[in-house]
Amino acid sequence: MAVIDAVEMKPPRLTVGPLAWLRKNLFSTWYNVVLTLLAAWLLYLFLKPAIEWATTEARWGVIEANLTLFMVGQYPRDQIGRVWLSIFILAALIGLSWGVWKNAARGFALIALGAGVAFILIALFFGWDVWVEWLIAVVSLLGFYGMGLYLPRGRLVAAIGWFVYFPFLFFLIAGNPYIATLPPVPSNLWGGLLLTLLLTIVGNFGALPLGILLALGRRSKLPVIRYFSIGFIELIRGVPLITILYMAAVLLPYFLPIDIRPDQVVRAMIGFIIFEAAYQAENVRGGLQAVDRGQYEAAHALGLNGAQTTVLIILPQALRAVVPALFNSFISLFKDTSLVAIIGLFEIVRIARSILAQSDWLGTHREVFLFAFVIYWAFNLAFTYGSRRVEEALGVGKR
Amino acid sequence: MTETNNSQEIIICRDVHKWFDQFHVLKGISLTVQKGEVIVIFGPSGSGKSTFIRCLNRLEEHQKGQIIVDGIELGNDIRNVEMIRQEVGMVFQQFNLFPHLTVIQNITLAPSWVKRVPKEPSRELAMQLLRRVGIPEQADKYPAQLSGGQQQRVAIARALAMQPRIMLFDEPTSALDPEMIKEVLDVMIELARSGMTIVAVTHEMGFARAVANRMIFFDKGEIVEQGTPHQIFNEPQNDRTKLFLSQILRH
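Above: the input entities. Below: the structure tokens describing the complete assembly.
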């Protein structure tokens, strides 16, 4: 056979265009045609009444009338500026993070930006005044993004900013009897999405450091620390969250000194932190086990001590390896906050039920719960998207 | 604890034993290394040669006998161990670079944290070392972006950044593709000629021939034979040495 020079060829043309796509994916064989038609018919059967209901019968007025209740519960209406302020600062921090961390923060930043713009448009469409506030939030996000691009030591500033933000947020919402402009707002008035997010944020950010310590403790050479960590983790993982919340609500006051009486929300937060820490500890432990033994040896051979090895070499790799699991636990906790309805806190689900008790809006179960459903779903979808982008960005330098 | 340090003997091992559970890995190793000496340890896999070299900076603990490195005896005192580890650099078969840090960060990490060298001097030293191993242009990449040979050269630079008095090499070329072995060996040869004390576990007989002062043949946890490369290659005394050499030199 004659020797033929290898010819460089173009890759085969992919079939493109909607018709080709339809043929390839939906109508390629006779049984695919049958399945496609069947699925289309079923979709029609289910969606037709749903759409008819949503466009004609449903009383969406219940959402508009109770939107503030959904968002902040009974938070005093004359103090809502404090919630807005915390949103503005959050937008600024997100923008700043986008500017200094670029890729890693871009996913979350784009979502926040998109949400802000969407809220402006929605507010304008319905003729609500809040478009001004959302505009401020969007401008603040973009402004701080621009600043983050040029800020020297920006990463340090942003990290400190986030670190300070969460205690400050709590302080801002709770108020203080000694500051005239921030009168205290008792936590039984916090509610709705505000409460749900506060519980999620405090629960997660309190639990992660504790979880890391527990995971390290579980591998400690000192038996006291090791057995305490194992005992704590296994005890908490062995009981349902709802029992821990009851314990926190009912029993916690008995363990604390007589003059310390944390209110119901703080007790719930402690319950969440304890519960979530046990799970995060197991996530982190998985990451610690994934780190190669050679990493310890290399660190030790260079003369690093145990603490330096853990903090500089092992933890960064372990945490990076389990970022998806950590984010997954974040999402779980967000959904689990709905359980605090049982110990008497007005988070989204309980707010929904209280709305249904208003005489004006009897019988609007579907509208109200659909809205609650959409709030949870939208947040989780956004969070999942943002965390994917973070995971991709952290892939740098991975083996 | 501290013995007289004016001698030229930088590593002294006396009757070192080690067991993995019931398995007797090291059966009474006695060895003295002079300052500036280049020692090549070779032998069949499972002969305990890697375990022995890992005992020299206490990545493995010996259970009987004495190991004195640079005048300090290795024991359970962790401060002694950390002191020794600053004096002894180690290069691993699998490189063991820190994947989450860039090349330059890998190199400056230990000087900054262990010796508290300020940022600028430690960076300068790192760049100088990267030039010495021939890859200054890779400074800001991550290890995963480098070839195996480049990674191993970074690992050598990382060990040298602590300015050790002794370098240990644990099969540094075994995980490398053939075309990358030379670039690593060249760095090791240059290092040996600069007067560094080196203990290397390796089967690179070209390296041994070029720079080793002494070759040590390990088998079944014992030193079977030692001598200059000339003696080992041309007139090996022990049958096990002859057999092993014939196996690795055949091709």
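Note for the figure: The interface with chain B takes residues 292, 294-295, 297-305, 308, 312-313, 316-317, 320, 396-399 of chain A (CB under 8 Å).
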